[in-house]
Amino acid sequence: MKKEIRDSFVQTLIKMKKENDKLIVLVSDSTSTCRIGPFMQEYPDSVVNVGIAEQNMVGIAAGMSLGGMIPFTANATPFLMGRSNEQVKTDICYSNTNVKLVGLNPGFAYGSLGPTHHCLDDLSTALSFGNIEIFAPCDPEETAQITRYAFEKEGPVYIRLDSFQAEEIHPLDYQFIPGEPVMISEGTDISIISTGTIVHETLAAADLLKTKGVSVRIINIPSLRPLNRDALAELIPSASRVLTIEEHSTHGGLGDLVSEIILEKGLNCRIRKLGVPSGTFAPASPREDIKKDFNLYAEGIMTESIALLKG
Q1: Is the dihedral of CA 265, 271, 273, 277 positive or negative?
Q2: pLDDT-based confidence at residue 102 (cuts at 50, 70, 90)
Q3: What is the mean pLDDT of residues 83-90?
Q4: Is the pTM of this model over 0.90?
Q5: Could you give the CA distance from residue 27 to residue 36 in angstroms, rounded to a whole number?
Q6: pLDDT at residue 311, rounded to an integer
């Protein structure tokens, strides 16, 4: 059964608030975006809406942290990492404040609103900062576990949280371990590595590839920092092909991170990065249409995989 990932996030916040009253949520006129309503009903005094003032929101969150609170910010990713770039860098990362930044609707989630609202650089931005852990859950249970980990972890955290109705990908006994890549399915011909909700498209692509006799290994990267580089290298079969998938720029994101590890570990494989080419702006269109433009859907991933295998 499908469940909205943001609902899993909010339900986890409610549970944690019952355990520790220091939790507080800050939004920037984004109560509907983060679906915070159920939390607000139970804890109306624990949601601070600063209005459309994202830089102030980040600064206030840092101040609350220094006062002993555990703040979660929840607003649109393009404005969190774009408009608040300096505050995230200085007030959160450099100052090492215990703030949990939750970026909503990344990638092409705001498809028809155009490039001003598309967010294709949040991972590269966050990875360029020092001292912040970075996560991108792919399903509701992984979202819940990452949210709890962020709450219990002392220090800056960024969670890339999609608005997405998702089936559970992982088994019932799944345990999120920060830094650990997760192999979802075995395979020897090609390894498809992805992060966040685009993992669902890679699974659909794997099903299509299997009908053509291609053995596909699916690897999920819910934790971009920390990342166990040795563990990821061990999951990539020797002499195989590797395709990375991300609803993000191919510059500075997952693909570059995996390429760096392959080079560093001296792995004998060929890699192709699938995402949005560096320097490219997508048109204002529905999200699914834009994903098709960049082959970020099951059939497109299948096409890219076959081309890589033939190359």
Answers
A1: positive
A2: very high
A3: 96
A4: yes
A5: 9
A6: 79
Q: Choose among 196, 198, 243: nearest CA to 222.
A: 196
Tell me if 23 sits within 8 A of 17, measured CB to CB.
Answer: yes
Q: What distance in Å separates the CA atoms of residue 184 and residue 170, rounded to the nearest whole number?
A: 7
Q: What is the pLDDT of residue 238?
A: 80
The one-character DSSP state at 277 is P
Q: Which long-range contacts (CB under 8 A, 24 or more apart) does 261-265 make?
A: 261/229, 261/232, 261/233, 262/233, 262/236, 264/229, 265/229, 265/230, 265/233
Task: Take residue 169 and report the two structure tokens written for it.
Answer: 């990908």
Q: Which amino acid is at 219?
A: I
Cβ of 154: how many Cβ atoms within 10 Å? 8
Cβ atoms of residues 42 and 14 within 8 Å: yes
Contact 244, 274 (CB under 8 A): yes
Amino acid at 247: E
CA nearest neighbour of 258 among 123, 132, 107: 123
Preceding amide of 226 cis, omega within 30: yes
The pLDDT of residue 46 is 97
